[in-house]
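Format notes (please read before filing issues)

Several people have asked whether sequences and C-alpha cells are stored in separate files. They are not. Every record keeps both together, in the order shown below: the sequence lines, then the C-alpha cell lines. Line labels are part of the format and must not be stripped during preprocessing.
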Amino acid sequence: MKKSLAIAALSLCAWTCAVRVPPPRLTGQENAAPDRAWASVLSRFVDEKGRIDFAGMAKEPHDLEVYVAWLAKVSPVSQPGSFPTPESRLAYDINAYNALAMYNTITSGLPRDLNAVKVRFFYKNRFQLGGRDISLYDFENKVIRPFGDPRVHFALNCMARGCPRLPREPFRADLLDPELEACAQYFFNEDRNVKLDPDRKTVRLSQILEFYSDDFLKKSPSLIAYVNKYRQDKIPDAWAVEFIPYDWQLNSQ
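Then the structure lines:
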C-alpha cells in the first residue's frame, strides 16, 4: 500500500509540477545530418567502458543539440512513414532515450547523484519528442517497454554508473537484434552486474533485474534462467538471488 501511494504521489507531482525543457535553438541546422551528429557525440565523449565526458560535452554541445533538436520534430508518431518497421521504431526510441538522458544531465547542471534529483530528472522534466512532451519515465515505461523486448534494459542508459555500458555507436534498425543480443551478453558477463558467492550458493544481480523483474520473467521461468541465456559461466538454478544496490552516481569519466 505504501509503495502504491508513493507511486501515485510521484505521478501526481509529475503532472502538476511538470517542467518543460525546451529543445535547443539552432540557426537552421536542426536537420543537418542528425544521425551523424549523434554518432559523433558517442564516439567523441564516450570511452570504451561506457563512461561519459560530461565536462567536455558541456563545452562542445553542438552535436548533441543538433540531435535533440531533430528529435523534438521527428518521431515514429509524427512521421510514421519514416519508421516502417518495429526495429526502426525501437532503434529510434533507444537512441532518443539515451540522448535525452544525456541532454537532461547537462541542462540539470551535471548532478553528481541522480538519486538526489530523481523526481525532477525522471518525472518532472519533460522533453519534446516529435512535437509532444514526454518525461524519461513515461518514455521508458509507456513507449519502449511495451515493445516487449527485455533486452532494452541493457541498452537504455540514464547516465548513472549502475546503467549498462553505453555503446560508442548509435543503435541501427538493420542491426538491432544482434546489437541488443551483444548488449545483454556484455551486461551479464560483466563482474559488476553479476557476483557469484559459491560458499553461500547465492548470486547477486544488478538491481535492474529487480526493477524490471516482470519483463524478464515473461521470457524465462526465473531470473537465473534468464541470466544464463547470456552467461558464459552458468549459474546453478537452485542458488538464491540477491540484488546489488543500484549506483546512482553520475557516470563521468
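For reference, the curators noted about this record: The chain has two domains: 2-187, 191-244. The first helix runs from residue 2 to 16.
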